[in-house]
# Entry
Amino acid sequence: MVHRRIHGGLASRAARGEPVADAEELQQLAKLVEVNRSRMSRLSEQISMLEEAAAEHAQVLKALKALEAGPDAGTMIPLGAGVQLVVQRSGNSGVVIDLGSGIQAERPLEEAIPMVGKRLEDIETLLSTLSEQFDSSEESVKEIVDQFNTLLSDLQAEAASEGAAEAEQESSSTEPTKRRRRSISGDLTLDD
# Structure
């Protein structure tokens, strides 16, 4: 019955010259919501990875600054499984830093600190951009969901009113009209 009402509603709207695209619009809006939600999911994963990278860079930057402040102090290098290697550094020793594409080079602390600081700034800028995109996508999803709900309630209200009109039409057409019986001669009978 519902299936018939929807098609009947679409057909009657087409006959009246009204747009029939409401059901199609609902499908398109639902697809848009799914696309934006999957985009938000990907952005969320990227943001999470960048937050980890930013925390790691901040920790390395802090360690490099501590090394720069006290060159004569011993340094412990974690090897894993709770084991650390104690190293005595010389005053002019540097660090090996990844320059990109798997290329690593030894640099003095004075060069390494700004390089790591610049990377941290770049990561934070990218994080900010991705967070803005995430917020924008979230706002788009909210707007699309509002449109979807409005359109759906309009469709349901229209279907209900058409259903009521059809029911009223059916009830009025099913009531038999009383015909007066007449005799063969056309005179009224006792049943009238």
